[in-house]
Amino acid sequence: MLPIVNLQQFYPGLFSYGIGMTGKQMYLCEDDFNSGERCVRDAGSVLLGTFEAVQICYAGFALGAYQVARLVREPATVFDELMASVRTTYRAAPRVWQRAAQAVAAPFDFDACQCVPPGALHSSQALA
Fold first, then answer.
1. Which of 72, 109, 114, 128 could form a disulfide with 62 if both were Cys (CB 3.0 to 4.6 A apart)?
2. Cβ atoms within 10 Å of 125's Cβ, excluding its own
3. Per-residue pLDDT tens digits of the chain, which is 128 residues long
4. In 10 A of CB 110, how many CB atoms?
5. Rounded to an integer, what distance in angstroms lies between the CA atom of residue 110 and that of residue 6?
6. Which has the closest alpha carbon to 20: 42, 2, 41?
7. How far is 52 from 33, CA to CA, in rounded Å?
8. pLDDT in tens, 61-77
């Protein structure tokens, strides 16, 4: 089972995240970040050495699994990939995202964040 990182953008230039696992208590980051890249790097730093991979959600929508090391090593690239997934998902279901934007301040339900199939990591290298 992978931990889940839920990234949130509350305002332009104001990001934060929570980390949890399905059925477990969640850790809410008390810091705010001025970029998505810094937010991704910080989340990766918290998980590095404990987990190899993490499920990432943005505003509660599952976007895929990523190697934790990539979050620390390539945060800008990972964030760009996440935002590309958000744009693709938004084009496919804009009404769903509109409802999500209205609920962005609501507590995140880790049980509702759907996991990706095993082996579906977003990485140029598979986990060892």
1. 114
2. 9
3. 899 999 998 888 899 999 998 878 778 888 999 999 999 999 999 999 999 999 999 888 888 999 999 999 999 999 999 999 888 877 776 665 555 555 444 444 545 554 443 344 444 333 33
4. 21
5. 8
6. 2
7. 24
8. 888 999 999 999 999 99
Distances (CA, A) of 26 to 18, 41, 51, 66: 7, 19, 16, 19
Task: Tokens for 43, please give them.
Answer: 């989340």
Which helix (DSSP H) or strand (DSSP E) does residue 54 occupy?
Answer: strand 53-58
CB 56 within 8 A of CB 33: no
Q: Side chain identity at 118, as an amino acid letter?
A: P
**What would the two tokens of residue 104 be?**
């962005």
Joined tokens for residue 65: 């699994």
The residue whose two tokens read 């934007």 is: 101
Burial of 87 (0-12, 13-18, 19+ CB in 10 A): exposed
pTM higher than the cut 0.85: no
Q: How far is CA 120 from CA 30, 54, 66, 112, in A?
A: 30, 11, 9, 19
